[in-house]
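Ops channel
N.P.: pipeline sanity check, posting one input/output pair.
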């Protein structure tokens, strides 16, 4: 049986994507948090031989308000000019400030889950953040409802999606993800708050303000809008406190105000990562019955603390300790009871995991000592030393138990991890061996022998059966389970057959013997190996900057060498006109000067956005341009970037398309002026929606300029080579203009620079490549590097916090998951997407030139489609497969959730984008290209 190489490449890539999905399923399981609910009847009735009196656990406050200010950083609270009233309360001893540590991912939905349930959310909850599914875990909200305590809510609709039946009254922001809303949603919350403060039927009110988070996404934490937003929040706090004072004086109640943030905000804006400003948030208890503390507590400690204050059962899933200083209002007997209750729960959970080993630990001995001292105090409530010692032991033991539970909370599914990793490694091996085949072979003869094939099938089935033994033993095996094992066995068998036959036809010369070929493959290898280091993953942009700059310099030097050889050859002929030699030398000087200037341009745009982790806090050119006092310079930068983009579009567009592109660029500038980002030199721009409507019409016209002639030629059956690539070129222009619209104003220059760099690399590769295969290989790999480089140029990184949500809402007045997702994808991955489209454009252009030559002189043909697929497979699969092995080995590493896991999510999304690229190659690229080299 003969199998075409392009079919093998496609099959291998699909299997690789499937194996990557299996790995992610095993690596990102949902946290082990059962849906079991706690009961009030489960409260301890005695300790040792001493019984409790039944009144040790009851509500200590009459009503409470939990005020969540989205993206509230620790340093924001300490700004006395912006939080004047709150700092006055802290100074007068009427409020206490604590520091909470937030576990990644630092996005809203997992943080709400942690605050209400006391459980550690799964890392994949970062993806579920957009959907916010209904909460199944036990929470203090559920426990309050069981005790007939009414809760009202106003704010982010993430809460109402997670808790659809928990609130007596509610008012949610229907467009919580619409980040351009700085004020309207918050004002609605405050308006409803003032109405609720006049009512007395609720026990807990939850407020979730979003304006600060939206400002951070769009303009960052140092925006001039932040102080005003903080003062607005301070006024809300003042209003609540004044109302609570009236309640105290009139009804002698004990109300409580709790202020916190769900997560922080990184210095460059946004959140989702693990930097200190993102993972440390304030917790303010507005009460004169709290104690100050410099300790750092966990965000999951809020759930048991709230439960104790409200007098309800602690959620079953909670693994948090209590925030002891916030419970100062409890009497000594009540305090020890609350701590014993929570510590006993945690000890039971740990004992379930460690079994008999737990009783031999120091933690268990300390817990038993605390229980003994607790009994001593109950017998003699005047024994202060026993109380203090028991309090200290309960606190330290609960924190240690929480640490042990956190370390065992996320459970990997090692079966899926191993299957996915092994299968991806086999796919990567096939991708490499395909590259090492004879260049003239277009098909692979597969002739598996009967008995080895049967043995391979049985062996793979038995190995899979052995791996899945634990799963099968926990439940009865089903027919679908065995069918899945058989299917996986067939997949492994086909991969083994393909790999075994490919190994027989390997050739060492397939990678090329030139210095440039050696360099690019060494670069691919170096990047692959560098992924074993967390520091290299955090600073991956440095690798791409080095590789792209190096290939540009090497290609330039090789071109200069070709020029020198040409001049030397011409100079040997005595009859050569001296003026011709001078012209050649002048061209060499111009070429060198232009190359140096272009490299300097790359150095300049590289400074626009700091990325990575080490230097993220350092101000960059983009930060400087974003300041209001530098709006003129930002306007000039945007103008230059748009002009440069139009200049690059001229190389691939006709007159009418160029005019429409110029108009579209003018509309982009007008839109930014209407939003107040740039100036229009004294003129006013107000109607942004109208200009965007015209912009979309322009893009449609550019598309139909290429589409309608193709339809006409199809109708009249006139298949000509002329203008066959016009539609594709116009699609590239549309993508480039969309990227310019979505990018921040100072990043628009990157779009034109990317297009110019693609042409820069292509021209030099075509002039210096030894053969057609070397030319295609250098183009594919250099454009892959180019896309990665510009991905980091625009400020992206391997941290989820660098995703610019503001780009998803350009031109939108409400949230739409399809449009927002499309815009975010195009903006975040504009570098790789545009670079690949330009690669295909360059191959089309070169082929059209060769076809026109072939009409005069027959040329050889070259199977470019299968070679491109092989190259794409190799440079995609090999690094990802190696990284999966690294992540598997280092799954218990301290940085697994802050460095490796976000990288896996990015790579998984990238592989899906590469699948789209593979489909484009199969659909658009001819099977054979003419070879003029």
């Amino acid at each position: 049986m003969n199998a075409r190489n392009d079919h093998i490449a496609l099959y291998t890539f699909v299997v690789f994507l499937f194996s990557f999905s299996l790995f992610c399923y095993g690596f990102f399981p949902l946290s082990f948090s059962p849906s079991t609910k706690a009961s009030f009847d489960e409260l301890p009735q005695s300790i040792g031989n001493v019984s409790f009196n039944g009144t040790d656990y009851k509500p200590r406050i009459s009503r409470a308000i939990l005020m969540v200010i989205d993206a509230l950083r620790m340093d924001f609270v300490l700004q006395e000019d912006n939080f004047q009233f709150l700092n006055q309360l802290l100074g007068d001893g009427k409020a206490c400030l604590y520091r909470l540590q937030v576990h990644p991912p630092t996005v809203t939905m997992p943080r709400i889950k942690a605050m209400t349930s006391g459980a550690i959310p799964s890392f994949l909850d970062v993806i579920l953040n957009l959907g916010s599914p209904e909460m199944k875990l036990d929470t203090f909200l559920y426990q309050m409802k069981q005790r007939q305590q009414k809760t009202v809510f106003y704010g982010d609709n993430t809460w109402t999606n997670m808790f659809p039946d928990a609130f007596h009254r509610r008012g949610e922001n229907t467009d919580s993800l619409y980040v351009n809303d700085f004020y309207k949603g918050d004002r609605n919350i405050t308006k409803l708050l003032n109405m609720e403060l006049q009512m007395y039927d609720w026990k807990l009110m939850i407020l979730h303000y979003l304006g600060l988070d939206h400002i951070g996404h769009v303009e960052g934490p140092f925006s001039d809008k932040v102080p005003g937003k903080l003062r607005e929040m301070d006024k809300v706090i003042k209003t609540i406190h004044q109302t609570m004072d009236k309640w105290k004086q009139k009804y002698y109640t004990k109300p409580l105000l709790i202020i916190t943030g769900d997560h922080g905000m990184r210095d460059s804006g946004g959140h989702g990562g693990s930097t200190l400003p993102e993972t440390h948030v304030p917790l303010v208890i507005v009460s004169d019955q709290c104690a100050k503390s410099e300790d750092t507590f966990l965000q999951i400690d809020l759930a048991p603390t709230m439960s104790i204050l409200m007098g309800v059962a602690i959620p079953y899933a909670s693994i948090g300790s209590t925030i002891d200083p916030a419970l100062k209002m409890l009497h000594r007997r009540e305090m020890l009871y609350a701590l014993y209750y929570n510590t006993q729960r945690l000890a039971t959970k740990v004992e379930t995991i460690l079994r008999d080993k737990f009783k031999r630990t120091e933690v268990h001995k300390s817990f038993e000592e605390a229980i003994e001292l607790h009994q001593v105090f109950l017998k003699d409530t005047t024994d202060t030393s026993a109380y203090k010692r028991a309090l200290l032991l309960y606190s330290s033991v609960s924190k240690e138990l929480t640490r042990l539970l956190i370390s065992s909370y996320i459970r990997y599914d090692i079966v899926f991890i191993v299957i996915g990793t092994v299968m991806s490694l086999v796919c990567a091996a096939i991708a490499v061996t395909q590259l090492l085949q004879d260049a003239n072979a277009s098909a692979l003869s597969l002739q598996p022998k009967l008995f080895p094939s049967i043995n391979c099938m049985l062996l793979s089935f038995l190995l899979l059966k052995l791996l899945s033994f634990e799963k099968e033993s926990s439940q009865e095996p089903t027919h679908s389970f065995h069918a899945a094992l058989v299917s996986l066995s067939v997949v492994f068998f086909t991969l083994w057959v393909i790999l075994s036959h490919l190994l027989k036809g390997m050739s060492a010369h397939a990678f090329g013997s030139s210095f440039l070929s050696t360099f690019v493959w060494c670069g691919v290898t170096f990047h692959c190996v560098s992924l074993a280091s967390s520091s290299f993953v955090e600073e991956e942009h440095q690798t791409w900057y080095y590789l792209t700059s190096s290939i540009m310099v090497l290609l330039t030097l090789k071109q200069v060498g070709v020029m020198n050889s040409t001049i030397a050859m011409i100079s040997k002929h005595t009859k050569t006109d001296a003026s011709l030699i001078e012209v050649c030398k002048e061209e060499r000087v111009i070429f060198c000067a232009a190359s140096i200037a272009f490299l300097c341009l790359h150095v300049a745009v590289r400074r626009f956005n700091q990325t990575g982790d080490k230097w993220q806090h350092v101000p960059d050119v983009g930060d400087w341009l974003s300041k209001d006092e530098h709006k003129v310079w930002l306007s000039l930068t945007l103008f230059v970037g748009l002009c440069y983009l139009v200049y690059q579009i001229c190389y691939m567009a006709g007159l009418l398309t160029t005019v429409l592109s110029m108009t579209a660029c003018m509309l982009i500038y007008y839109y930014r002026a209407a939003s107040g980002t740039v100036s229009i030199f004294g003129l006013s721009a107000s109607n942004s929606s109208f200009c965007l409507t015209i912009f979309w019409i322009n893009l449609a016209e550019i598309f139909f300029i290429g589409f309608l002639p193709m339809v006409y030629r199809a109708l009249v059956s006139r298949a000509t080579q002329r203008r066959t690539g016009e539609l594709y070129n116009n699609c590239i222009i549309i993508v480039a203009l969309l990227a310019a619209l979505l990018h921040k104003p100072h990043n628009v220059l990157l779009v034109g620079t990317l297009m110019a760099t693609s042409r820069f690399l292509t021209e030099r590769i075509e002039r210096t490549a030894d053969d057609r295969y070397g030319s295609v290989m250098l183009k594919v790999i250099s454009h892959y590097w180019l896309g990665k480089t510009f991905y980091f140029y625009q400020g992206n990184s391997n941290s989820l916090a660098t995703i610019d949500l503001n780009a998803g809402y350009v031109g939108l007045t409400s949230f739409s998951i399809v449009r927002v997702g499309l815009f975010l994808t195009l903006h975040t991955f504009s570098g790789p997407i545009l670079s690949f489209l330009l690669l295909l454009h360059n191959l089309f252009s070169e082929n059209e030139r060769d076809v026109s030559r072939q009409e005069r002189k027959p040329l050889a043909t070259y199977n470019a489609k299968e070679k491109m697929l092989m190259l794409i497979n190799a440079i995609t699969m090999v690094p990802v497969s190696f990284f999966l092995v690294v992540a598997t080995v280092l799954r218990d590493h301290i940085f697994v959730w802050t460095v490796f896991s976000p990288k896996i999510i990015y790579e998984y999304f990238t592989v899906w984008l590469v699948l789209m690229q593979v489909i484009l190659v199969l659909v658009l690229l001819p099977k054979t290209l003419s070879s003029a080299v």
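N.P.: looks fine end to end. DSSP finds 34 helices and 14 strands in the chain.
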